[in-house]
Amino acid sequence: MSRFRDLRDYIGHLKREIHEDDVRTVSGAQWDLEIGCVTELSAEKEGPALLFDDIPGHPSGFRVFTNYMGTAARCAVALGLDADASKLEIVQAWKDGIKNLDAVPPQEVEDATVFENVLEGADVDLTLFPTPRWHEGDGGRYIGTACMVITRDPDTGWVNVGTYRACVQGRDRLSLWMLGNRHAREIAAKYWARGESCPIAVVVGCDPVLTTAAAMAAPYGISEYDLAGGLRGAPVEVVRAPGSDLPIPAHAEIVIQGEMPPVEEESAHEGPFGEWTGYYTHSGPETVVRVQRIMHRDDPIILGAPPMIPTITAGDQAVPLYSASLTWDHLQASGVRNIRGVWAFARQLMIVVSIEQTGPQDAMAALVAAAGRRRSGGMERYFVVVDEDIDVTDLNHVMWAICTRVDPATSLHTIRSTTSDIDPRLSPHQRESGDRTMGIVLIDACKPYAWKEQFAPSNRFDEPYRAQVRDRWSGLLPL
What we know:
ten-stranded antiparallel sheet
């Protein structure tokens, strides 16, 4: 696995292991919409990672970094793999790495670059940073789109690290949207029950292994720092935030430290925000952080992962990789045989499994098992099983299977489950009543096993010959 000291180390690895041009510096883009639009346009083409500098209204060197895991190659680098690894090789490496992961606790150090600049009291000012307004309908400037929110359980000392969207509400106010079933919200509620505000730190800018671990949602009582250490193969270097027992990454770009009172005591209107589903769904009074201290490195970098419509595959390849690896592991644990590949499209709204059929029930067994991994409140909507000749990482290939091997009368199955608050398909009545049920679809896109060998043959060239033609003509044609 990877061992990046910090975000800057990761950026250097991208330049060395992929290409110098895989990270492009963009000078002069406006924080209001323009950075978001350039990011989106580049992501649609699976373009380079973007480092925005010289942002009008802010000091030169105060930067924003986006599309940081926008391609499979960047994900490979983040995981310590060869940049030329295939998508399924990356999924397998991630799956095996997580399954055999040994938790590595963080290590406290004294050398902390995050303390290069410390702002307290009247100097606290979140507007110093070039926080983008990512989309036109956003209700504010969101500094936290790939952030780490750190809290500590007052009873057990357990340190939780999660990811929540964070909006700048003023010089010394930050709002967070935390769903009620998230660990940080549960920890905060313990402080509130005692009549206390919850100590909190929000990290904006760190290496991708840390941000990935923060989004993984470790089991209750397990710190995401330990997961990150396992993924890195080395402990995360941390320091104590001043005046608290919250461990923060020693080499983070920006850390916002403060306290979070209960919503009844103080709140801010949060949202709307263009979420990863491609829609605006939630807004209302949410928790705030009363900012007491800001720490940042010289020439700080905001790490940005603005949500885009989920069919833009380059938005964040880490999400389909993670969903695919967990599903693959779950299928194996459930006894599903002959799995040839697993992938996720539209981030994780559609899960596709490739199998080599050995019996008439194999396809349905794979579908049921895949749907069984779906956690309560998940957003996975479609589960598809295909034959081993289908490249599950190629949407055109998957759609070919769906359009030619599915009998709509017999190959489609629907079941009821729960969904997330950000699901745009929830009706106004469902939202008002608290009903979060939604249908999910199981699609058998395999050749019928009973006459699989008699299924019409494909006219597609086989992979060895395609590889031969690519080698011969790749210098002349974009193959």
